[in-house]
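ugh ok fine here u go
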Amino acid sequence: MTVSKSLDPKYLVNIEIGMDVMILEDNQKENKLIPCKVKKKISTDSIVELGVKVECEDGKIGRVKFIGEEAEYREPDELLTLLEKRLRILIEEVLSKTSENWWQDRISKTIQENVELKNEKYEKLRNLLDVDEFSSLEQTDFVHLQWIITGKKNYQFFKDIFGEDKSAIAVKLFELSHFRNIDAHSKELKNLEKQKIRIYFHDIDYQIRRYYKKSSNL
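structure:
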């Protein structure tokens, strides 16, 4: 992993091409940092507290606020939530290409039934609080995402992303689902668990980003 550094506004930090950084994207309404691999330095003037302006490999433009990867910048609980969202997006994108009714055709009855029970409970709450409706996939737990990806009838569609041998991704997702459960019950994660979350997030997120990059070049 890239060694992280805090940007000191009193000094001009040497931002290099290919460096992993977190940027505040130009014209972004939400004041949140996003990951970026530097493709080009647009401005070497950090304008003191604003940071050096760069273009990322994915075309985004913004000012560097943190040098280091997303796994180093965010807290472990944030990484778990973020990875959960990215896995859901990936699952829908991959499986929707295999079947128009992919939820019925590719998702096990056990998961479907579990989600239906959640939907029934959530429907009552939704009517009371007038909140947005969730999709079925959004109602899945982390362990469900593991089952969907590594299941016998589905892994053939994910092996180009995570490798021929599914045991590596299966073990990582299994452990992450355990850590997610600990966090969901407001229990304190141990330092070794936090370290594993950062490492696993880095590995899985890299595989996902590599897939999207490859797909965009086809």
